[in-house]
Design brief:
Layout: E1 3-8, H1 12-27, E2 31-32, E3 41-46, H2 51-71, E4 76-81, H3 82-87, H4 90-94, E5 100-102, H5 110-119, E6 125-127, E7 152-156, E8 158-159, H6 170-174, E9 178-179, H7 182-194, E10 199-203, H8 223-232, E11 239-243, H9 252-260, E12 267-269, H10 277-283, H11 289-302, E13 307-314, H12 321-334, E14 338-343, H13 361-384, E15 390-398, E16 406-410, E17 415-418, E18 428-436, E19 441-443
Parallel strand pairs: 1-2, 1-3, 3-4, 4-5, 5-6, 7-10, 10-11, 12-13, 13-14, 17-19
Antiparallel strand pairs: 8-9, 15-16, 15-18, 16-17, 18-19
Length: 449
């Protein structure tokens, strides 16, 4: 059977989609290649959130076409995901060596299209049409790495987004919100737990909007909180996480869930994007700076040890120095443990791309650097505070940067590196933090249970 290599760009949703496609292809008899150099099929699962991500994938495909076609003219090249959805046939017109373009609602069709191409029955394929029920088709998981089972897994609970932030292309590439049923999600989580998974991360474009139009609130609990309660009952699971929410989804029912549900890990990624009310309104975010800080205050009052991360955009159209200073001060006030900082990137067909006051690249670069500096200063202090403390970690496996050491994650989502061994994989361990690095904590071997 042919071998396939999938390279993923972008978010955790893309990682999950790639995993599911790979699992489906394995079930069909495909082999997973170690690199594109030896694969019969090379698929790039793409991201459209920023222009840089698109250009990176396009350049990669150009290089693959030159390098691989020279010696292996029959290798199949394809795009999957968000850029495939937004650009469609344009990708084949620009890159004639591409054989396959599959959109965000057609991942489950990948095996069928590859079979047609490899057998010679069909020509080039572009499949980007919407498909009813596609939100429930991605269930397969790659539970096995090179040697060991996975300890953590992503579970997609919905597709699409109805928020239509003015800077964001996601509603156009992922479509409108479509949620799976709670029993279906719980069944998938049970299957994962039976295969040794200890922690699941529930995924959605705006995960807190889960079931909003299909499931009625019950006892003051939103559909998403109802889902959290149902997954919480799955035997074998130790931790539950979710990403990405929207600030408007943090009602009192979700805030209180952190105190009621022991398996719900004390961490929250809440994208704020800007600290300026004027810019937030232009972004169509639906909340104010004050409202956002109220949410942060409620979460910390409920769970003081909670880890908070966010997304921030520097250089949004017409952003003034005063607007930007308000973002800097918000970072100081909210005391984020981590923040992902991005320069504003024009996305075609989004309202922000046509707004007046587009800022020069050098202004965006300068503000991005200043914002990143403040974020790192705040985060460093919060990480430093862990030195000498004992924390619980779920051991996931060897450290990516140093395979000779092992890594685990605290409940509040800090990575801890320590001198462990394979026997610790999947265990909950109490470790004492000896040193804090940049976004990583280090524990000594003599403090392991």
């Amino acid at each position: 059977m042919p071998s396939v290599y999938i390279k993923t760009y972008g978010c955790q949703m893309n990682e999950r989609d790639s995993e599911a496609v790979a699992a489906q292809l394995l079930a069909k008899g495909y082999l997973l290649a170690a690199s594109e150099a030896t694969a019969d099929v090379v698929l790039l699962n793409t991201c459209s959130v920023r222009d840089f991500a698109e250009q990176k994938a396009l350049n990669k495909m150009r290089n693959l076409a030159v390098e691989l076609r020279r010696n292996r003219p029959n290798v199949v090249l394809g795009f999957l995901g968000c850029m495939a959805q937004s650009r469609g046939r344009e990708l084949i017109d620009r890159l004639p060596d591409v054989d396959l373009v599959i959109g965000t609602q057609k991942f489950h069709r990948t095996a069928d299209h590859l079979e047609s191409i490899l057998s010679g029955r069909g020509g080039k394929v572009v499949d980007t049409e919407a498909e009813t029920g596609s939100e429930a088709t991605i269930r397969e998981h790659l539970l096995h790495g090179k040697a060991r089972k996975s300890v953590t897994a992503f579970v997609s609970i919905m597709q699409g987004c109805n928020q239509y932030c003015t800077f964001c292309i996601v509603p156009y590439t992922r479509g409108e919100e479509r949620s799976r049923g709670i029993p279906d999600i719980v069944a998938e989580c049970r299957e994962l737990a039976a295969n040794g998974v200890k922690e699941v991360t529930l995924l959605g474009q705006i995960v807190t909007s889960f079931g909003r139009r299909a499931i009625a609130p019950s006892d003051g609990k939103s559909p998403f909180v109802q889902l959290l309660e149902a997954v919480h009952e799955v035997e074998g699971l130790e931790r539950i996480r979710f990403t990405s929410p929207h600030p408007k989804g943090y009602g009192d029912d979700l805030v209180s869930a952190y105190g009621r549900l022991p398996k719900l890990a004390e961490s929250a990624h809440i994208p704020v994007q800007s600290g300026s009310d004027r810019v937030l309104k232009l972004m169509h975010r639906g909340y104010t700076r004050t409202k956002f800080l109220e949410i942060v205050g409620k979460l910390r009052a409920q769970t003081p040890e909670i880890g908070l991360s966010t997304d921030l955009i520097a250089g949004f159209p017409s952003e003034t120095e005063e607007d930007f200073e308000q973002t800097l001060s918000l970072v100081e006030e909210a005391q984020f443990d981590q923040a992902y900082v991005f320069k504003y990137s024009q996305r075609r067909d989004t309202p922000a791309a046509e707004m007046p006051g587009q800022l020069p690249d050098e202004v965006k670069e300068e503000r991005n650097a200043r914002l990143l500096e403040v974020v790192n200063q705040v985060a460093a202090k919060r990480f430093k505070a862990f030195e000498g403390k004992q924390v619980e970690i779920l051991v996931e496996g060897p450290s990516k940067r140093n395979p000779e050491r092992f890594m685990g994650r605290t409940r509040c989502n800090r990575i801890v590196v320590f001198d462990g061994s394979e026997r610790h994989r999947g265990q909950l361990l109490q470790v004492a933090v000896k040193r804090a690095g940049s976004f990583t904590l280090y524990a000594e071997p003599d403090i392991l249970d």
